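Backbone-to-sequence.
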């Protein structure tokens, strides 16, 4: 048994360090290979592209990468190199491009699911503009970038082949349906809904992430993306049913448990079906159940009917009311514009961060270009590494980076008398790079090794003491600039992000009411409701995690309760949209839905107390629609209180 004293701690630390170094070996080896070959082929002045290439490699090496993504990575790096060179041709271009390129990349690529998805590509743009080049030098740099991109795509393709993995969306879909069927069977066997809610929620969140990753700004959702949206909708409805088990307690009519077994069997048949003939048979069964099976009004009835409708869409090429699953291709220009406008939200964490990133990079890169001082490019380099999406992480780096830089100066001073000659310097730097990738990003230890690498490389062209002084100067100046921007440009402390998230949830709900109103009078693509679903849960998950972490118990209970009510209200709007999309509502109800959508949008807490609103709902003929709307009104009152 391992000791718990100093020896035991030392052994655990040794194992941890060994594991970290082993995990960094592939990154260190790729860096060393690229550094050696680019230096030999193009010259050591063109090695700045290596760091962003390694970052992209590290974020992609364990992922299941579609082959068609690999050429896009290479093309993106080459395009960013061209933009980076253009940014060095004048102050105007420098300000404009450093404000636009990092902003757009951070805005489009980041999310609460993946807040640092922007990092590798913005890093490529920033690093490739650090040293202005002549047209001839730019041509060499472009060739070096193309070479590095080719090596990266080859290594990622080899990694994908060695692991024997390829994207298997059908596997994700099949496993999701089987888990859902098991949940339904366990409900039928009497297991409490509360105990199943967390399992169903995890499943829904997994498919929310798949929905998010399957979407593209300029690419229309293909059949797989559409199925992700439909599956996420299935699990959303299951979670809504399980979250309030009043129907199990007898407050509402509970169906025969065998109904849940039957539904589970249908889910498994949908999972197993592969041919058009099998799909046609299942569609007939589903339609027969929709036509013949009757249940009393309530959430269980809506759950069953919505599940049957969604299963029918999954096995159908002809969704209800003539809606076809979108084929792969380019999204219409208006859809692209709508998506971009949706991202421009001052309450969204990624928009706030993208704005700060643009301010920092435009400021520091322009200073670097105009000042033209020795190694002034260390200013934008350090500023980029200090600014993080999370205010707290950024503040942490502003403490660890200067400390690590100072310690790196001491390490280089101590080693400078031993490491002599170009080859020895290169060998020392490659060891430092290995340690950089073995350390926790943003830690003072990582700053020690990255500073040692930079200072030892700089010692080949300038004096050691000068390099140390400049490194410290530009790190401290970068800290000052980032500190000012974080404080005054759309600050994003966790408390501020939480308040913004709550407003975002309300706006998404308002947008869903707009979608409901539009669905009454015209064709609305199915993926729009799927995008609304994933967007809501993207924000809801972060807000709920913050609320659960509140120290005050009363405040924690109040805030989590309000968020749950908001989620219930969103689920009820989603049910209304489903009923409109199903094509089963009479014209009178459709007209009432449109009127109610405009009335409830933006002010549910106020409108829910209106007798006129309740009277209008009472005029609805459809039991299911009337039930969903009354539930929405009741929850609106809870929110108001």
């Amino acid at each position: 048994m391992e000791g718990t004293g100093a020896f035991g701690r030392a052994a655990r630390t040794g194992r941890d360090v060994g594991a970290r170094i082993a995990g960094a070996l592939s990154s260190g080896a790729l860096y060393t290979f690229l550094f050696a070959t680019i230096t030999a082929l193009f010259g050591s002045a063109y090695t700045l592209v290596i760091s962003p290439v390694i970052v992209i490699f590290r974020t992609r090496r364990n992922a299941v990468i579609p082959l068609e993504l690999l050429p896009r990575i290479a093309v993106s790096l080459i395009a960013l190199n061209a933009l980076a060179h253009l940014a060095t041709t004048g102050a105007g271009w420098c300000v404009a491009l450093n404000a636009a390129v990092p902003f757009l990349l951070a805005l489009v690529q980041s999310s609460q699911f993946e807040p640092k998805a922007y990092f590798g590509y913005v890093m490529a743009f920033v690093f490739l503009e650090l040293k202005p080049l002549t047209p001839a030098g730019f041509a060499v740099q472009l060739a070096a970038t193309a070479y590095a991109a080719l090596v990266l795509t080859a290594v990622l393709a080899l990694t994908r082949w060695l692991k024997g993995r390829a994207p298997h969306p059908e596997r994700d879909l099949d496993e999701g349906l089987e888990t859902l069927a098991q949940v339904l069977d366990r409900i039928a066997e009497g297991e409490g809904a509360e105990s199943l809610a967390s399992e169903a929620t995890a499943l829904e969140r997994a498919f929310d992430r798949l929905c998010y990753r399957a979407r593209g700004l300029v690419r229309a959702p293909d059949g797989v993306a559409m199925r992700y949206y439909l599956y996420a909708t299935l699990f959303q409805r299951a979670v809504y049913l399980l979250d309030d088990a009043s129907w199990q307690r007898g407050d509402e009519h509970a169906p025969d448990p065998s109904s849940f077994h039957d539904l589970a069997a249908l889910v498994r048949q949908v999972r197993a079906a592969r041919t058009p003939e099998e799909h046609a048979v299942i569609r007939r069964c589903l339609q027969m159940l929709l036509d013949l099976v009757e249940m009393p009004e309530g959430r269980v009835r809506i759950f069953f009917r919505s599940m049957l409708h969604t299963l029918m869409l999954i096995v159908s090429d002809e969704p209800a009311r003539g809606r076809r699953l979108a084929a792969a291709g380019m999204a219409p220009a208006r859809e692209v514009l709508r998506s971009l406008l949706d991202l421009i939200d001052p309450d969204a964490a990624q928009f706030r961060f993208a704005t700060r990133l643009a301010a920092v990079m435009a400021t520091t890169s322009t200073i670097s270009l105009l000042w033209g001082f020795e190694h002034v490019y260390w200013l934008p380099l350090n500023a980029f590494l200090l600014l993080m999406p999370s205010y707290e992480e950024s503040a942490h780096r502003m403490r660890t980076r200067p400390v690590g830089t100072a310690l790196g100066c001491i390490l280089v001073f101590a080693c400078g008398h031993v490491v002599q000659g170009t080859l020895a310097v290169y060998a020392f730097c490659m060891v430092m790079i290995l340690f950089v990738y073995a350390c926790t990003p943003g830690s003072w230890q990582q700053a020690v090794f990255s500073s040692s690498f930079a200072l030892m490389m700089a010692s080949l062209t300038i004096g050691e003491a000068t390099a140390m002084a400049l490194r410290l100067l530009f790190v401290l100046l970068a800290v000052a600039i980032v500190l000012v921007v974080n404080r005054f440009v759309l600050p994003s402390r966790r408390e501020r992000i939480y308040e913004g998230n709550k407003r975002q949830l309300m706006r998404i709900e308002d947008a869903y009411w707009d979608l409901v109103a539009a669905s009454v009078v015209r064709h609305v693509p199915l993926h729009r409701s799927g995008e609304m679903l994933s967007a809501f849960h993207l924000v809801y998950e972060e807000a709920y995690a913050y609320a659960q972490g509140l120290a005050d118990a009363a405040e924690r209970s109040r805030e989590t309760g309000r968020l749950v009510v908001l989620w219930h209200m969103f689920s009820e709007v989603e049910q209304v949209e489903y009923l409109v999309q199903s094509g089963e509502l009479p014209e009178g109800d459709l007209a009432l839905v449109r009127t109610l959508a405009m009335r409830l949008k933006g002010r549910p807490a106020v409108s829910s107390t209106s007798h006129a609103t309740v009277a209008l709902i009472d005029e609805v003929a459809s039991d299911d629609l009337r039930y969903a709307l009354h539930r929405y009104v009741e929850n609106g009152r809870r929110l108001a209180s």
